[in-house]
Amino acid sequence: xxxxxxxxxxxxxxxxxxxxxxxxxxxxxxxxxxxxxxxxxxxxxxxxxxxxxxxxxxxxxxxxxxxxxxxxxxxxxxxxxxxxxxxxxxxxxxxxxxxxxxxxxxxxxxxxxxxxxxxxxxxxxxxxxxxxxxxxxxxxxxxxxxxxxxxxxxxxxxxxxxxxxxxxxxxxxxxxxxxxxxxxxxxxxxxxxxxxxxxxxxxxxxxxxxxxxxxxxxxxxxxxxxxxxxxxxxxxxxxxxxxxxxxxxxxxxxxxxxxxxxxxxxxxxxxxxxxxxxxxxxxxxxxxxxxxxxxxxxxxxxxxxxxxxxxxxxxxxxxxxxxxxxxxxxxxxxxxxxxxxxxxxxxxxxxxxxxxxxxxxxxxxxxxxxxxxxxxxxxxxxxxxx
Length: 386
Prior knowledge:
- About 10% of the residues lie in helices and about 40% in strands.
- The chain is mostly beta strands.
- The relative contact order is 0.12.
């Protein structure tokens, strides 16, 4: 009898079919491939959240282009804590609208993260723009929940030019007011011409953002004076503002501001703690809770701040509370954030103030039309003179 030798083709076909079936089941489980974020982000599997993947903690964001961190480029630096990740890393997300929308700007592996415990965003930044960040961990095709949200202001270059300045007769002199357009200023300079010639007044920066007041009492009735202002930071001066002129008279009328917002709501509670950046700079960390069970849900929040110096008093606190409630004072708003964000770190705090400096904070909840629906309690935080 003739013996016929069997080929391997049938066995190979069976193995190929089995591999296709197993591969199809695996892809159905993890989802399709997708590109998460912009072109700098790596291609990742469809997100499958897994509580077993620990979330990053203690995300800290600072402007890395300050004089404390010498650099040839402007950058925002992030640090965070994480457990060791095998076959994993982090997706770093950024928002420019207070957390309403996010995009992935970078994926780093755990081995890339480990030496520096963080990442620096060196993309071209717009001066005096606030950016928000959050981080989540991934292991293979699973993702953790997100870290806390933190933000920083970009202090690239010299400050922007003052675009709003007024001068009027008030309180027995000429009251010069302008809005600081910067978050990283170190001082201001007002130049006056007229009367007896040119004179310059130098002011120290005690506020991160807001209306700067200077009452010029060295004036003579009947004389016309012209003022212009500029802002200074660690990199130099801004250009001068447009000039404004006023003729001084002996009368002075100051219109009082009136509250235009609701009284505090127990449903919106503001708390705080003092913390320090990884460079040791002090800052006040604000957190708030919002129980909207009986009110219209908030769509966004305004963080409001006023600054005063000298001894505190009940009258002084009441005056600052009224000031914070006056929505015509838009310059007192530090930031506007999405309703999902309920933390804010104010890093523009005097490290060694020459006088007792009080920082007054309030949170305002806004509806979808931008109307104030409730306000928080006001807190008064003190940095004592050194």
